[in-house]
Amino acid sequence: MDITIDTTVLPHTDPEASLAFYRDVLGFEVRSDVGQGTMRWITVGPAGQPDTSILLAPPAADPGVTEDERRTITEMMAKGTYGWILLATKDLDGTFDKIQATDAEVIQEPTEQPYGVRDCAFRDPAGNLIRIKEVR
Questions:
Q1: pTM of the prediction?
Q2: CB under 8 Å to 131, separation ≥6 — which residues?
Q3: What are the pLDDT digits (tens) for 30-52?
């Protein structure tokens, strides 16, 4: 089999704030932006990696999601337990400093983990956990 990761999905609650975070703070390219208001689907990805994307999507936009499920999703997003992604960089300290200089919520400063990874963590505007590990 020849399988690649094309796109992963993270929810957003404020498309403008999420767009600003991924584009202006992380430096990702905007690949598409469709819809309007809070019902926008925004695809972003790292420059130089056109085959890997993150789709920032309105949570629970599926008509099959019940009101109780929507409420649960909203509560989980507020706690930062609904969506997360692991990114990687060769310059963890420089990346951390750049992101920390914005209004992003720092969850963890660069730390050597007992399982052999050095990483840090932030929350995006929707509460999604963004972990960034150092490539060694």
A1: 0.91
A2: 84, 85, 86, 87, 119, 120, 121
A3: 999 999 988 999 999 999 999 99
